[in-house]
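Lecture notes, unit on binding sites. The following record was shown on slide 14. It pairs a sequence with zinc ion.
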Amino acid sequence: TALRAFVHALPKVELHVHLVGSASLPTVLELARRRPSAGVPTEPSALAEFFTFRDFPHFLRNYLAVTSLVRDARDIHTLVTGLAADLAAQNARYAEVTVTPYNHVLDGMPADDLLTGLASGRAAARADHGVELAWCFDIPGEKGVVAGRETVVFALRERPEGLVSFGLGGPEVGVGRAQFAPFFTAAREAGLHSVPHAGETTGPATVWSAVHDLGAERIGHGVGAHTDPALMEYLALQRIPLEVCPTSNIRTGQFASIAAHPVRRLLDHGVLVTLNTDDPPMFGATLDGEYVAVAEALGLTAAEIALFAKNAVDASFLPSADKTVLV
Ligand code: HPA
Ligand code: ZN
């Protein structure tokens, strides 16, 4: 369609995608066949069912099973270059990619393997796909403050090239944001940007906590803010963008459909909304697809659709000189 062609032609950036969650279905099958004991299906139809989620906890369980398949630097390189190829195919030239070092090391990967795979993958993404990648190292919240401490120590000790931000993922229910405050303070003092997940599966209180306790400069999801006009006004005035991932929200059961999704309400309150995929093959999402779905549901004009792409460039942690080249 004309809409799809227009969306595709827009130069886009992706600000919320998890490295493990970006593994293509063929890659997941290949990794699963190498390690059948991990419980990840080795046949396409069973994998499709494995990626049909009842709720967020079910998603996270299966996501972590896929994480456990990733063993060494070569696997990391495969994930990074696969993501770069997928981004290039969406006409996305830049992405900030969430990596969760603690989970990989917990699953037995030497930290050096992770760093080596990220570096070689990033170089190949640039050389072979013309895609620039930056990293967000994030805390797996379900693993508690130990994971928080280890993640920030690792991030600040290693400081790999391309590391721009520090995050917090995993469940929100029962995992208060504030307990991770010291680690975000340390990360911010070292010059990393604060980008926690908040308001994905819970409401405005979590988003407020991300802002007040973790100094959030951008928020993963954040859609839970939609019931709190004062919070939406705050996010708009402070220019704290949201990394909205509509298909992810639907596939984890937060909203019934794109029509029922609060993206319109957030926009109407002046919040800076960006569109992202989160874990694309697991959710059957693509970056172009997110733009098309929102454009259709909201009846947007071409100028309004293009604004999403521009918002994402503005909301990125690219140096300002690079931002002007991209828009
Ligand atoms: N939220 C929290 N944790 C995650 C997600 C997410 O969307 N994807 C992978 N880990
Ligand atoms: Zn996420």
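Take-home: The pocket of zinc ion (ligand 2) is lined by residues 16, 18, 169, 197, 220, 278 (CB under 6 Å).
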